[in-house]
Each structure stands twice: as C-alpha cells, then as structure tokens.
Amino acid sequence: MGKINLKTTVVESREQRLGTVVAWDGKASKLSEASLYSSGCGGDGKGCELCEIRGPFSQGSVCSEQMVECQAGHVRDAVLIQHAPVGCALGQVDYNSLYRNGLAMRNQPVENLRVTCSNLIESDMIFGGSNRLAQSIQDVYDRYRPKVIFISTSCATAIIGDDIDGTATEYEEKLGIPVIPLHCEGFRSKHWSTGFDSTQHGILRQIVRKNPEKQGDLVNVINLWGSDVFTPILAELNLRVNYVVDLATVEDLAQMSEAACTVGFCYTLSSYLAAGLEQEYGVPEIKAPQPYGFAGTDAWIREIGRVTDREELAESYIAKEHARVKPKLKELKKKLKGLKGFVATGSAYAHGLISVLRELGIETDASLVFHHDPVYDSGDSRQDSLGYLIENYGDIASFSVSNRQQYQFYALLQRTHPDFILIRHNGLAPLASRLGIPAAPLGDEHIAVGYNGMINLGETILDIIAHKKFHEDLSQHVKLPYKKWWLNQEDPYILAKEPDLIETI
Ligand code: SF4
Predict the structure, then answer these.
(1) pLDDT digits over 316-371, tens only?
(2) Is 224 touching ligand 1 by the criterion CB < 6 Å?
C-alpha cells in the first residue's frame, strides 16, 4: 500500500488510494476474488479484475463535504467553517440533531454544534471569496474562542480556486491556534467516505501531538456517535477508551499519538486515521477482523490482548462472555427462526452486521453496501473484512454495491423479499416500508458490537418484526413513483448495461 502523505494539505481520494467502486453486482465471493485485497489495477501483477458498473445517471447521493461536517463539525471545542454557498450547509440541521443526541447518549452536556457557513454568493464566484473566508475566521474566533478552526472546501471554492491554504496559514499565525483546511469538495471523489479521510488527514497533520508521552492503557476508538459500549469491554483488559473523532475534544484528538493501540467499529471509517497514526506515530492499529459475532470478536479481543500485553485477561474475558451469551443466543435463535434479513449500510459495517445475522440463524442471501473498498489503508490481509465474512459465515448470493440509488434498491428488494432490513442511511427506509418491509434504522451504530451486540441486534429485530403488520397495511395503500416497466424489471443494473433503453422507455 502507498504511504499516507501528510506533506500536502489535500488527501488522496478513496478511489486513488484504495480503488473504491460505487456500483457492482454479483456474489460476495466474486467481489472478494475480483478485489484481490489490493487497490486494483496491477495489484499482485494480476491486472484489474474489479470492474465497476457505470450507470447513465445518479438518482441521489451524499458528498464528502457532508462527512466533514459530521466529523470536524462534531469536535466539541472546535468550530467548522463551511467555505461554501449556503446550500451546502443544509446538513447542519440533521447534524445538529445527531450531535445533540450523541452528547446525550454519552452523558455529556447537550449543546448545539458550532458549524458556520461563509455564504458565498454570485459575486464571490467572479471576484473570489478569500476576503469572506478571512472575515468568517475572525468572526468565529471572536464569537466562540475555539481551540481549533476547521475550514471545509466546496465545489464552488474548487471552481473559483480560492487560496484557502494561504488564508488558513495567515490566520493560524495571527490567532495562535490550528486553522485547518479540509479539501473535500463534493465532485472530487465519487464516494462520500473520502470526507472521513479528509477530516482525519487534517487532524493527523495539525492536531495530533508530535512529541507524545506514552499512555500504555489508552486505546483510540475511532467511531461516530454510538453509545458507550467500548468502555466496559476494554475495562475487562484494564484499558481506557479514547473516543475519536465525533464528540471528542481537541485534547482527545491530540493525545491519539500517546495511545497503546487504535481500533474502530468499522474499517470504512477508521482505515485512514488508524493507518496514519501507525505510520507517523508508531501507534499500532489492531490488525484483526472487526468485533462482530463470536469469530470476529474473539480474534479482535485476542489481538488487543497481544498488542497490549494482556493475553490472560483477554482469554478470561472471552471465556466468560461465551458462557454468558451462548444460552441467551440459543433462546433468541428459536424466536428468530425462519426470518430472512437484508443489510443496507456502509461497506465494512455491513460485513459485520451480516456476521451477526448469521450468528442469530437469520437467512441473509442478499445485501447492499453503498460502496466497496477492495482494500484498507494498512494493506494488511487480517483486515480483509469481506474475505473474513465469507470464510467464516459463508457466501452471499446477491451482494450489490449501489450508492443510495432508490430505483435500484426497489429492484434489489424484489429479488429476495426479506422480512426486515437493517439500514443506516435512513433515506432508503421509507421505500422498504412502502413494500411492506420494516426497517431497523440503527441510529446507534454500536448496537451490534461485541458479544452483547448479538443479543442487542436479535432483540431489535424482534421489536421491528412486531410492527410488520403496520408496514404491510401501508404497502396496500401507497403507489410507487416508478413506471410499470421498471416495476417489472428483474435486473437493478439494466440501465447501466443497456443505457440506450432510456431513449425507448
Ligand atoms: S456536492 Fe458540492 S455543492 Fe453539493 S453539497 Fe457537496 S460541496 Fe456543496
């Protein structure tokens, strides 16, 4: 794998680093084979085997800038300036509610987020927006006295070419705090997860302490806003948790270089930051499967035990949890028998959730991920989460990659007719409801982590199945917004394979 390059302010996009694709269709085992657990063309001398399906249009998506908004914008004592037209700031409403809920879940004082927008207008597109950015930096500093100011770029600033790095450097010297440009304009990358990497790149360059004093019992946990499930797990190994990036303080981010190791709940999110911490500061990233199901959690705990010299504690925790959880799981499996599930979430997270569904005895013959990274930044095959899923829990006959295309989601659900779906980006859930399928929206992304995660997810599924009749009734009284031609289509990707069809339908 290529080295992470912190010399430049601009992060390399996912497709450049990892060979990321956003559309693909077939068996999970085919996707894994074609990926070669490498970044694509030329990997292992076998050439590029992972070919993306290129559709003629996109019905909707998310952009990298929004991921910066929900990461950099959720650092508690920092401020994010969106250097953008006000339309890019629409996400502030949603992200404020996520921030407030996240703080409440972690027992932190609830407050509004501090994200502002420089509000570029037509004349700025002609004469440049640097003055407006400079004014915004001074204004947020005077108003909030933050410890760090982040600046996110936008499609508009990329077009007009404002010198954002120059303005950031000028104000960093003037104010005496880090002023960090995050290059994340929406059209720079085809997948929004590049926005995670952009935020993490800026943090690695300008916040993480360069002369760390080691804290041998501290573990960086790269996560979003989920409930605090990692503290009790890692406490069993006498380890303390350092949650980053969302809901962290600037000091939490600075001390990442002092930790004993780094873990995450999902490699899609944690890949870049964890690899960067290892490369630049020697903080080992835990190279193991993700902590889902017995197989993944056992291997994950063992690797943490090995890296932190706590192997005995790890083994006794594993034995204790197996004895506690297995009888409960047996009971749950009886209640869940005969159900069919469908997962529609981010990539690596889906691999973990499918493992848990299979531990619960739930049939999962089809699922959807919003993108696919053929490899993660460490390049270490112990992190090959898709390969690990297939090897330990079997193949998935229909494993599709689609970046939130509603029309494809409809056809994908028609293939398998699941009893319920697990979903993270809720925009797709109403469509499932209209088809009579209830969805668990997984607002708390930590719900399925670890041994207890299997019980949590099983109970959540029982709850949503109890509402199935409501969704079935709904499906009898709604009309879908598609033509009969599309409603009868069996191949969700037919328009990508035969784009000329658009002219004829
Ligand atoms: S795609 Fe571009 S214009 Fe749209 S929200 Fe993202 S940065 Fe703004």
Answers:
(1) 999 999 999 999 999 999 999 999 999 999 999 999 999 999 999 999 999 999 99
(2) no
Residue range 462-498, pLDDT digits in tens: 999 999 999 999 999 999 999 999 999 999 999 998 9
CA–CA separation, 136 vs 446, rounded Å? 36
Q: Where are the alpha helices (DSSP H) in 244-310?
A: 250-254, 267-281, 293-307
Residue 102 lies in a domain: yes
Task: Count up the domains in the chain and report the number.
Answer: 1
Cα–Cα distance, 373 to 281 (Å, whole number): 25
Verify whether ligand 1 is closer than 6 Å to residue 182 (CB atom). Answer: no
CATH code at 168? 3.40.50.1980
In a domain, 2, yes or no: no
Q: What's the 3-state SS for 77-132?
A: CEEEEECCCHHHHHHHHHHHHHHHHHHHHCCCCCCCCCEEECCCCHHHHHHCCHHH
Of 69, 321, 371, 84, nearest to 195 by C-alpha is 69
Higher pLDDT, 452 or 51: 452
Q: Give me the domain span that covers residue 95.
A: 64-183
Per the prediction, the chain carries an average pLDDT of 94
**CA-based nearest residue to 20, from 279, 197, 203, 245:** 197
Domain-embedded: residue 148: yes
CA Rg value for the chain: 23
Return the DSSP state at 13. P
Q: Which residue has the tokens 């630049």?
A: 280
Return the best residue to mutate from 88, 119, 189 for the ligand 1 pocket (most ligand atoms within 8 A of CB). 88
**Residue 81 pLDDT more than 70?**
yes
Tell me the CA–centroid distance for residue 1 and ligand 1, in Å.
30
Q: Is residue 341 included in any domain, yes or no? A: no
